[in-house]
Amino acid sequence: MSSPINTTQVVVEAAKTVEATGGIGVLGINLQIFLAQLFNFSLVLLVLWKWVFTPLVKLLDERSEKIETSMKHAVEIENRLKEVEAEHHKIVTEAKTESALMLEQARTDADRRKKEMLEQAKEEVMKIVNQGKEQLKTDKANMLREVKTEIVDIAVAAATKVLKESVSEKTSQKLAQEVVEKMV
Asked: What is the model's pTM?
């Protein structure tokens, strides 16, 4: 085991160290080195705080602000897009309705116009037919008048011939046959 002298020497040295360092020495800490390290740590902490941490926090805050603004804009854009889509749907629906009405109106107008044109065509055909009938009646009356006039002229000519000649029965039949042939 260890000798009692060595143990006492160690105890004495420990006591001197405790007195020199104040009670921290017992823990194995040198107060001067500890204070120097504390000063260095504080200095590094101050430098990091001033030139690294503060600008970094500021940069992160700005970035967060930009992200938040972008999110707000995205929400606004999304809302506006929904409004535009609803408006587009409404316009398309109105256009379809309006085009259907216009198409129906065009069909109705076309049918009405078709009926009117048919009626006009029928009226014109009837008018032409009536004019044709009237023309035929007039032509027929004129022809009958002319035929009557010719028959009268032929009858007078035949009668004149019959009277001029004393005609026998054969001659009178021959003259009558000539008159009939002229009429046809």
From this structure: 0.39
